[in-house]
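Need residues for this backbone.
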């Protein structure tokens, strides 16, 4: 029989094999010894060649690996004390039914958006596979060693179910693949139509996943500031480009063609409009406001609309100390004779 105490048809053990048999009888000469072998064919000796077992009627051998999905057979014959050999008896075989063990590794664990990951299947005792890739394309696969695209940033799980004759095994690696974002260059401007001689524009950088920047203002000048301002000195149409740099993943470039339009000053005359002048512009320490009518209040706002200065007045001119303002682009609102006037100036 296959096994020691009772006949075993299947086993999950892969490193040992056992067999036992009823004693042979010879009333005349008696039994001198038994001989056995193990193989994966009936009567075969592919695993263990013919070996003497003395007078023992059972045997256990180890130190090898039995192949999943195969039958193994034990063959036995006896030799009597006269040297005669009996017929060979052969077991009905034991089937190796190993439980699958799911396993895999990734070619890389941290990538950038749009990158691929190759998965190597290290499962054993399995004949089919079902993968699930959170955040991946495709999101599932049944091939042994898939390659998966990750189009978006995030941290993602990977699961593999390995199935074989001995059942199924599931392995889930949580937060297994980390996908870092690429840079995304974006910006807006305070105005796209400017008039000389105060053709000043401030650039608001709304880029994502970035560390450094390179601006080209289309007139031969550039900047590495995050939110620069720029003064144009000639009329025309200007292309604006922004390169947003990412220290881990891909950079991004945004180019807006003919984005800034600069024109020569045009005199605009409106009935009952007060004449107000703001100077110097750009200004460093002091900013002068002059009107031919009474000025009632002055407000200054930064480039994101925060009110940073309010000043009440009752005069036709006013000088404001702006030395405590950071360098950049500002909006000034002036109230005179019931009208409100908006101007821009640069603190340099």
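Answer:
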């Amino acid at each position: 029989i296959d096994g020691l105490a009772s006949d075993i048809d299947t086993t999950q053990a892969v490193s040992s094999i056992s067999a036992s048999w009823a004693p042979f009888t010879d009333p005349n000469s008696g039994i001198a010894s038994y001989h056995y072998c193990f193989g994966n064919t009936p009567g075969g000796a592919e695993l263990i060649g013919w070996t003497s077992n003395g007078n023992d009627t059972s045997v256990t051998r180890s130190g090898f690996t039995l192949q999943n999905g195969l039958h193994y057979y034990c063959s036995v014959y006896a030799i009597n004390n006269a040297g005669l050999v009996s017929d060979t008896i052969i077991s009905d075989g034991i089937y190796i039914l190993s439980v699958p063990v799911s396993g895999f590794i990734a070619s890389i664990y941290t990538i950038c958006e749009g990158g691929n990951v190759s998965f190597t299947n290290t499962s054993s005792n399995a004949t089919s596979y079902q993968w699930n890739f959170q955040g991946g394309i495709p999101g599932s696969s049944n091939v042994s060693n898939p390659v998966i695209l990750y189009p978006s940033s995030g941290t993602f799980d990977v699961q593999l179910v390995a199935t074989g004759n001995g059942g199924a095994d599931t392995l889930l690696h949580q937060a297994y693949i980390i996908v870092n974002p690429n840079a995304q260059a974006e910006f807006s401007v305070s105005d796209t139509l400017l008039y000389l001689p105060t053709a000043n524009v401030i650039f608001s950088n709304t880029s994502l996943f970035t560390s450094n920047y390179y601006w080209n203002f289309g007139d031969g000048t550039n900047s590495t500031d995050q939110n620069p301002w720029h003064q144009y000195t000639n009329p025309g149409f200007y292309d604006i480009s922004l390169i947003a740099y990412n220290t881990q993943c891909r950079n991004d470039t945004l180019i807006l063609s003919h984005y800034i339009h600069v024109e020569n000053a045009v005199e605009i005359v409106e009935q009952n409009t007060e004449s107000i002048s703001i100077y110097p512009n750009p200004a460093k320490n002091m900013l002068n406001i002059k009107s031919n009518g009474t000025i009632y209040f002055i407000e200054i706002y930064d480039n994101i609309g925060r009110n940073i200065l309010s000043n009440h007045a009752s005069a036709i001119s006013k000088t404001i100390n702006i030395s405590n303002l950071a360098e950049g682009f500002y909006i000034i609102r002036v109230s005179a004779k019931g009208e409100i006037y908006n101007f821009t100036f640069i603190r340099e």
